[in-house]
Amino acid sequence: MTRSRLRFLLLAMLAISAFAFAACGGDDDEDSASSGTTSNEEAPVADVPEGKRGGKLLELAAGDVDYLDPGHSYYQFGFQTIYAMHKPLYSFSPTDAQKAQPDLADGDPVISPDKKTVTVKLKKGVKYAPPVGREVVAKDVKYAIERFFTINVGGQYTAYFNGIDGAPKENSKEFKTFPGIETPDDYTLVFKLTKPVGVSFAAALVMPVTSPVPEEYAKKFDEKNPSTYNTNVVASGPYMIENNAEGKLTGYVAGKSIKLIRNPNWDPKLDYKPAYLDEIEIRTNASDANVAARQVLSGSKMILDTNPPAQILPRLERQFKDQFTQVASGGYRYFPMNTTLPPFDDVNVRKAVLAIFDREAAVKARGGAFVGDIATHILPPDFPGFEEAGGLETDLDYMKNPRGDAAVAAKYMKAAGFDSGKYEGDEEVFIVTANVDPGKAQAEVAKAQLEKLGFKVRLRTVPQDAVYTEWCQVPSKKVNMCGSAGWFKDFADAESMLVPTFKGAEIRKDGGNNNLGQLNDPAVDKAMDAAALLEGDERNAAWGAIDKQIMGLAPVVPFIWDKTTLIWSKDVVGVGNPYNSLVDLTFTSIK
Amino acid sequence: MAFYIVKRLLWTVVLMVLISAITFLLFYVLPTADPAALRAGRSPSPETLALIREQLGLDRPLIEQFWSFLRDLFLHFDLGNSFVNNEPVRPTLLDRIPATLFLVFGAAIVWVVVGVTIGIVSAVFRGTIWDRILMGGALLAISAPVYWLGLIGLFLFSEDIGKFGLLPGSGAYQDADGVLGQAHALVMPWIVLSAAFAAVYARLLRANLLETLSEDYIRTARAKGLSERRVVLQHGLRSAGTPIVTVLGLDIGILFGGAILTETVFNIPGVGRYAFEAISRGDLATIQGTTVFLALGVALMSLLVDIIYAFLDPRVRY
Prior knowledge:
- Chain A has about 600 residues and is an alpha+beta fold.
- In chain A, about 25% of the residues lie in helices and about 15% in strands.
- Chain A is globular, with a radius of gyration of 24 Å.
- Residues about 1-35 and about 35-45 of chain A have low confidence and may be disordered.
- With about 325 residues, chain B is mainly α.
- Chain B has helices at about 1-30, 35-40, 45-55, 60-75, 90-125, 130-145, 145-155, 170-175, 180-185, 185-210, 215-225, 230-240, 240-255, 260-265, 270-280, 285-310.
- Chain B is globular.
- The model of chain B has no long low-confidence stretch (mean pLDDT about 85).
- Classes of the chains: A alpha+beta (about 600), B mainly alpha (about 325).
């Protein structure tokens, strides 16, 4: 798996989506329409340095973007370019990791009291880059979402949007218009939903698919199989990829480079992004990270796409203090325990495993403190619900000591019926992990922890790509523990973090299952259903409480909240965006 | 000779069809990976996978798929589209070929010149200190992995991150203007790539030359009063060098598939980098394209070697 893909490790298939909820807890309904954000008044707001306008930046990247088509990309690195050249309805500024900023939208989304209608007003005067050049209107967003569901375009997170009335559950062969997207005028979008999932739907409006696509221009490309809009994409944001008069991208050479230049039709008054740089070249074949990182640190006007190699990290503090930042990756890594099979079908055994577990060792196996903080629960820092779930602290005795606590572990083993304080049964613990580090190294740490409790462990290493699709996500394979699991955000909403991975109703027995511990607790499911209808602080408090509720059942060993280290040259004012843990090209500048 | 060349060309076509068939079997029939799953992205549903199979024509009978594959390959040199980014493989591959050819042929010139020179000097001065120094150096060069040598070269001599900035470093090829600029950017990659090859050729030539120089006809040449230089270069080298030609042809052919490590370290956008990216991302259509190209390179170079062989060695007649 590539470096960047690690971030979206299990993001898999949001078939587990937030939209499958049965509406219960209706007594929480509000009387009037409300603003659909998950904002928290106490949310951290970062300072972003002022920049100087002008200059050219070179980004060295290990590989290419997946797609430039905002309807097809679903990859952290692709998003970096897409957010620089498109205006989705909402997007995240590096100044605030929790509250999305209206981008193409003019103000927050308005959610109806029954949570089944979401209305978004658009800014007037936003224009497409050449060759289209006309003003962006509401029907362009409608078309963007409708085309996303076709197999020719191949939208990859349909589950976030298939709650729209008329939308298919999955990609379909034919292009269809959705009665559930209304455009009463050029600057108003009304989404009609089949279920009361307006809050989580509104949170998903930051996804690139909400970037406008002009139908009259894109249709001819979208009719091809697959769509060729990817290399003819038209921008609406501050930057565009260099193109010719027909719109064909001349500044994109697959696997080689992407040349971003200013969109001449972009109006800075209609955007919160300063867009300091005149030109950005992304070299997508700098595959030797060691060489590339050194070139960036000792060179001029350069940034690196993502984490530099581990051997360079310690030198940053000593030699390059002003040339790096660390941003929370908005995710967590964990060892899920299969709650349906012995020995982890006993909650006290699971608590004993959490108690004995040396999480510090597992973090070291991934690269040490530089790569993240030791997790004490599930929701990560700088994320809605994190503080409500306990912040960096925990009340649970079996999570208190990050290096493990044999006495607490023995207490829970005794509670499970093992008088010696260690496991006395015959069951073997079957762990599956990747055959490469860090997945392999961290699974070996897990094996050692389980052996401390007396378990017999069988560790099977398989190719990275097979870990999930062939083993951990397939309940019939009877894996007791997955050795390298992680879950990372698509947007700042706790529901999208906890529902896919811990809701019993989301377990898929036939494969593609993301509830790896197969936790099926009716009380958790009920609390999730109720929390899905809440907004604002109430929502964050509810999801924080659900995090605590899950940790009380100990289905997983969360061990790290990832951080990404971003580096740049000495003459660059780099700004990291916590939304996708990469340098924000629209806020970065040259000194 | 003309008949022989035509015959070999026909065999090359047959060989390419066979290689294409094997490639097709490997990537589409044997359960190495599901192209539809690769195209679909993360955790697709069975319904989405079925639609993509239909879109890619993977639901058609195998023989029909194979026929389409062969037809597209041989009639249009169409290698399909990347499963990762939908981009057609052919233009991307064609865009990468010049960099690889420039790298490979430049390095080949370096390793032939250096390797042959060292081989001759070592053979002529057999057992002397020069022989020992040169053969010791050759052993070192063979033992140094290209990747390691490349990094050491960059950390010592590249203009951007090197201790002694003498030569253009990683990524310089992409910034270079014109053929001369590109050649300048390739000086270090040529040296790095050619080091091990030059060492192998030097050892091979030395051994062959020592054997040749003890032949009766060499003694006869010397007895006739020919100069030592003429004996070695005209009579000895002609015979001892023919195996070098065979090896050279195959080496160049194989490197057509890309000098992956050199291209990676020096960030040269060649076929090797393209193949490496495809392998790391599981992009079967691209892997297949680069495989077919590599096979074509090896087949053509083998043909060329056989023809040159006939000219070099009068004993060989077809």
